[in-house]
Write a structure and sequence with these properties.
Elements: H1 6-30, E1 33-40, H2 42-47, E2 66-69, E3 77-82, E4 88-95, H3 100-103, E5 107-112, H4 113-119, E6 127-133
Parallel strand pairs: 1-5, 2-4
Antiparallel strand pairs: 1-6, 2-5, 3-4, 3-6
């Protein structure tokens, strides 16, 4: 029997896959992600034809520190840092987004108007960010 056959090969493969998954987990949750963020408001979603009710059932409030994320559960708190200014804000996930076409291009979070304004000028529209799960 060759050294890479049978149960030994299966064990090595499982350990290798497990190690890879742990590495991915650490890369995306412990160290954050450098991605892009935008903002949205009640005015912008009404213009798009939406009712203003977010995916978690709450009504969007431009003055709250909330966000839309496809990568985190409702209720999770995230620390979003503007990579250009170093300013950070903590937000609660209340909605799903950004739109799939934008998500695939690297936009991973839409911040409420107030949350975005805390870390950047609204006129910037899109900023590079680091996203970390916040347990504070």
């Amino acid at each position: 029997m060759s050294p890479l056959s049978g149960p030994d090969k299966k064990d090595r493969m499982i350990k290798s896959i497990f190690g890879f998954l742990i590495s991915l987990c650490l890369a995306f949750t412990c160290h954050g992600q450098e991605l892009t963020a935008s903002w949205y408001s009640m005015e912008s979603i009404i213009l798009e034809g939406s009712s203003g009710i977010m995916a978690n059932g709450e009504k969007l409030n431009d003055e709250e520190f909330t966000c839309a994320s496809r990568d985190h559960d409702f209720g999770d708190h995230l620390r979003v840092t503007n990579m250009e200014s170093g300013k950070s804000v903590t937000v609660r996930v209340t909605d799903r987004g950004p739109a799939w076409r934008l998500y695939r291009k690297g936009r991973k979070i839409d911040l409420s108007k107030r949350a975005f304004a805390e870390i950047a000028d609204l006129e910037q529209g899109i900023i590079p960010v680091k996203i970390e799960r916040w347990r504070g």
